[in-house]
Amino acid sequence: MTAQLSKIPKKATLNLALQGGGAHGAFTWGVLDGLLAHGGCEFGWIGGTSAGALNAVALVAGLAAGGREGARAKLHQVWEAVAKAAAPEYLKLNPMLASISRSNAMAQMAEMFSPYDLNPLGIDPLRRLIEAHIDFELIRTTKGPELLIAATHVASGTPRFFRRAELTIEAVLASACLPTLQQAVEVDGQAYWDGGFSANPDLMTLAAESPVEDTLIVQLVPLVRTHRPTSAREISGHVSHLTFNQPFVHELEQIETIRRLASRRRGLFGGSLDERDARIAAHRFHLIEAGRFTGSLSVDSRGKPDADLVNYLQSAGATEAGKWLARTWQDVGVRDTAEIGQRLHAMRTAAQPVAATSARKPDSAA
Question: How far apart are the two ends of the chain, measured CA to CA in Å?
């Protein structure tokens, strides 16, 4: 891949919008590693949710400590630790629960008991992992890409975006807090859950506020999953898939609506949009998708970050980043390549009823 990237001399700056997806976030690690290997790619603002938030803070912590190679090393350290993580600490305290956690029964228990029942001490193994690898004081006190780490305010369901200067470990834990598995994370006296409920990832703020006018979306979750869920676990997993995809789809639809309005005003009505909408309409989006790799995996695999899965998705992400750079890098700063409208159209088409075919056979020749 290095030889291929060396043929791309252009330098440009990208915002990053990193979607959540549990262990599937290893794909994003691969994408970031590929981008870091290309010396011409600089980073503007970085928005991240859940696993995307973990990737975002690992990236900026590594950049702050050791530049591009430091960032590559930090991402590797974090995901190696994720892959090595065993059963959560609160399960180890109970041999019965530890045994159950290795079977499919754990998912059923999560539906019957809350984390306040199973984990009354609020032990979160992700906290220990992040504390061991991420220096938040360094992030807050050094210059570098701005951060938008999304968490969902439990009381209102609205997103909160934690920025670089205020970032703490609680913000990242809040962004990745699945309410069926972890107790809500408290920040400034308010309770927060996973950011995927409200922004997965945020696109509008990046487009409207970042001085950089190109954003690369790393999409882990396919817009359409063709497999029809039938078992209780599959249905529960698909409900989660739909829930966490809706904020992303909603933002894509908002962007397309603003673009259509801008086009109509230019062509028919005259006038202009307000400054925020004008920036969103003009913003250039780009996309790297994991769907052909993650779409065939079970939804449960997001919560099972074994080494084989992590390494497979990391390699896939790095390969896709190389292909994207070779195919699209010259378009950064020039034109939008994400084709949001076409992707939304394909999603809507998939929802259309299949036309009934006539049962009557054509008349045979006499």
Answer: 64
